[in-house]
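=== Structural record ===
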Amino acid sequence: MFDTQMRAIYASGMTPAIRYLQKQKIPFRIHRYVVDGAGTSYGSDAAKALNIPPSEIFKTLVVSLKDNRFAVAIIPVSEKLCLKSMAKAVGAKAANMADGAIVERMTGYVLGGVSPLGQKKRLITRIAMSAKDKSTIYISGGKRGLEIEISPTALQECLSAKFENITA
């Protein structure tokens, strides 16, 4: 699915998300951990491996909107996305979770390693309101086993995102 150049980037650990932050001169820290091959709850696995509360680790979810657009929701792994609230936050009639294959093609990342940064196509992005008052949050660095620690305000600004009540 991914071309040879993308495979080389992922193997080196230098992901599009990290390159984007470096290019924009946005402060961040990288945290690596060993991925449990059997795991499917990637955010919870990251929290456990890094010994960080799940409320500090944020997952990147892509939703399909009724009007054929897509959007990104960034929410704590300890919470669930409210699709109705997400649709309202982006001005759509309805939202559904996007198909995994479409997410990978659209973002350039594999599931479990989807970063809101450095995606192939910039999507409308909303960040859970709970991130707003934290000094830092952790988001995917663009591959499994790689988390980026970043200020939520810096993340919001570089993505032109909005903080919204989008969790259930």
In short: The chain has a mean pLDDT of 90. The chain has one domain: 4-164.
